[in-house]
Amino acid sequence: MKKEKYTVSGMTCAACSAAVERAVSQVPGVSSVNVNLLANVMVVEYDESALDASRIIAAVSDAGYAAAPASAEQQRTQAAPVGAITDEIAQMKKRVVVSLVFMVLLMYVSMGHMLHLPVPAFLLGLENAGTMALLQFLLTLPVLLVNRQYFQVGFKTLWRRSPNMDSLIAIGSGAAVVYGVFALFRISYGLGHGELDLVARYSHDLYFESAGMILALITLGKFLEARSKGRTSDAIAKLMDLAPKTATVIRDGQEMEIPAADLVVGDIIVIRPGQSIPVDGVIIEGSSAVDESAITGESIPVAKTVGDPVVSATLNKAGAFKFRATRIGEDTTLAQIIRLVEEAGASKAPIAKLADRISAVFVPVVMAIALAAFIIWLLLGYPLEFALTTAVAVLVISCPCALGLATPVAIMVGTGQGALHGILIKSAEALETAHSVDTIVLDKTGTITEGRPEVTDVIPGPDLKPEELLQLAASLEKPSEHPLAEAVTAKAAQEGLEPAPVDEFMAVPGKGIRAELGGKTYLAGNLAFMQENKIELGIFAAEADRLAEEGKTPMYFADTRRALGLIAAADVVKPTSRQAIAALESMGLDVVMLTGDNKRTAEAIRRELNLGSALAEVLPEDKEREIRRLQEQGRKVAMVGDGINDAPALARADVGIAIGAGTDVALESADIVLVKNDLRDVVTAVKLSRATLRNIKQNLFWAFFYNSLGIPLAAGLFYPLFGWKLSPMYAAAAMSLSSIFVVTNALRLRKFTPKN
After folding, report:
1. Which of these is catalytic: 443, 642, 671, 681?
2. Is 443 a catalytic residue?
3. pLDDT digit string (tens) for 164-221?
4. Most buried pick, 127, 165, 384, 492, via CB within 10 A?
């Protein structure tokens, strides 16, 4: 299967995108198609042995639109949406300027005398009605010409039996123009035959200004809408601008500045204070503090030295260093983030598919209502112009722009805001589903805890001080590679204690170590090792039991006769985990800890965090089964993990959330990726999902409410009772305002910030 991106032109509403999807999905060999109305982009997955790009483009053309494969650069960088919207804004601006200039002239000519404005005498009076009508027609022509896309696409899609918003505009404004031309002929006939009553009647029924006003106002609305849509892509544009365009690289022993796009894996890159890092790599010389806020959202610079990784688009603050490039181009962290944000913005949430289905039938229904209104008012004896303006108003006010924009703009802003705060949401479906989860399952190691043991207690006997016991322990453990030994030596280094060299070091697997220090033999290890060597434990046996109850691992240190002290280590809870879990529970979510540790350790962590439940001694292969068991109880489950053994559970969960420092397998299996190792971002992700869904529902409500109220008003339903009648010009203005309202409401999501 091949996945390819296409740019699609001519789409203006959800009915358009639905028609394109429907046409392409019916082509044999196409397995999936996803059209992003906001970015004018279509992603198609198809069997390249069964068809090629030309068949797909032909299917789009048959549906009444135009498509072309995205450029190689757009395919590689996911840059299409920003560029497409920028081009759209530039084109719309030209159309708006021309439309407004001629609309103002048209309105002055047609209505200036009513406002007692100076109008040339050759345009006044019944004898000049033909000149007046012809001039209005000529002033309308440029507006029609510059906005011809409405007619080209609208009538083409109508002919293909998939009418869209352009069809409504084309029929509405076209009907006004056709009636105006008819009136022009009737005026000419009246002047030629001396029938001044006929001239007077039709000189008041010229609807050229209505047609010009409809097109001008709708184009102005589309321009403002396009500008607002451009702001929804600000997050992507900001991400793209983060990486520097050039890099200083060492080649053949010489420093040279080259385009960042020319870097290759293995290049040695020089970074000086204040410079941005162009690609991912590992420091090989020097040290510094790096501001990683652009990627992780963490405001405090991170200390970096030899062996530490550095990430593209982060900013070097203090020192200078050299690093070796390990990931370039589309493989860098920044490129992957941009790709994830783009794919999420292009995907459809289930709620959006509902709007698409409604839009697909909405336009034909509106056309039927407009026709019915036209016929009914004629049958009731009302003049032709009354029935015509009523039908035109129905067509214009019903354009489903707001309906089509309700979901994609909110999704794009929501995923963009998530990316700016280190939360990468892979799909719109994940963003929607996250708001409805009621159970959060947290893996313990590396998710709730730091993922490595740390010394928690140092308990010396009466003959030693704590620092003396710690120095003895570090000396004995220094040659060992055991994780607990690393915890002891790290603690000693933190306290400024230097380990002494030992002799005759011997490790006893699964039990402990034996070594000589200063001519004396010492032992370090677990209870079994002490009992095997007949060591007197004294008070330390009870202390060890207490530490074990707290979920810690006690290590005995002894000479050949008696125990000298205890040091306990544990995989400690991250400082932010307690706050995150409390916040999740305050949001009404059940939080469950899942761990392969023994029940005693799990219970200790559960008590420390005040968790409702903890599942202990769960084998890696059983984690997925536990998630499934919770789902079978009717729960909506989000799984948070970071390891390879979490991947099946992440895939099984309704929403899989991977901690960013986790394995590639876990990241691939997850729906949401947290760049930072901070559980508080789970809280932010759920809150962002809830805010986005709330925004979408507001948008959909407004779009449905607006149309349900506007159509009866435009159709004249209230005219017999209250005399309320909607002019086509006001209908055009109201339709444009509805789209602008929806986009502006979605942009409020840009104010969303985590409250950590």
Report:
1. 443
2. yes
3. 667 777 887 887 788 788 888 888 888 888 888 888 877 876 778 777 877 887 777 6
4. 165
